[in-house]
Amino acid sequence: MYEIQDWQHVFKLDPAKEISDIDLERICESGTDAIFIGGSDNVTMENVLDLMSRVRRYPVPCVLEISNIESAIPGFDHYLIPSVLNSDNVHFHNGMLHEAIKQMGHMMDYDLFTMEGYVVLNPESKVAKLTRSNTDLNHDDIAAYADMIEQLYGLKAMYIEYSGTYGDVSMVKAAKERLIQTRLIYGGGIDSLQKAREMFEVADTIVVGNVIYTDIKSALQTVKVRG
Q1: Three-state DSSP class for 166?
Q2: Which residue ranges are tagged as binding site?
Q3: Record's CDD domains (predicted)?
Q4: CB 3.0-4.6 Å disulfide test: which of 7, 58, 98, 141 passes with 33?
């Protein structure tokens, strides 16, 4: 069983985007700790299955970050379930999870699932608009979410998502200072080793995504943050 506590660097692949076999091989054999598969839109069972089958050729852990029930298919090493806490739509808090358990709970191995306390902070991102997230937060807000996630919900992971832009390091640090056991995952705008190192100073796990499709060499450089 794969444990998120072991992950320092992760590449995130979007099933709705194209990646060549050569670039996928470089990503999967880069030394990253895991491959996340997930996206905000145009995520289907077909493109998730296709990408999973391609990643499966390599020994790296393959993890599905569930964005809709239709694309939640068996065969992954682990599953992450985002609960977007700063969304005003209960569907993105627990509604999707509740529906999934109703449909598939009888065949779910719960040891393979981890719920993430998700906080979306880029107001221009697709995920912020889709989930109707309140991104107008300050340091006290993010610290309170961190306390909520660890002290009250008891979740293993907090995910700060800036999706498409590089985030405010001080905001990430404000969350990290409140967490003791919960893993702090950061994603958004990491497109260089310098940014990877800077954010890795205040987060436990960094997620590198968009730069894979625009500058594969820079993406591969980010793996050097691993200890």
Answers
A1: coil
A2: 12, 14, 40, 159-164, 189, 209-210
A3: PcrB_like
A4: 7
Answer for the pair 35, 212: CB distance below 8 angstroms, yes or no: no
The residue type found at 141 is: D
pLDDT in tens, 166-193: 999 999 999 999 999 999 999 999 999 9
Task: Write out the binding residues for sn-glycerol 1-phosphate.
Answer: 12, 159-164, 189, 209-210
Binding residues for Mg(2+): 14, 40
Question: What share of the chain has pLDDT > 70, as a percent?
Answer: 98
**Structural domains of the chain ordered from first start:** 4-225 (3.20.20.390)
Cα→Cα distances 97→29, 125, 141, 148, Å: 32, 23, 25, 19
The per-residue DSSP string of 26-71 comes to HHHTS--SEEEE--SSS--HHHHHHHHHHHTTSSS-EEEE-S-GGG
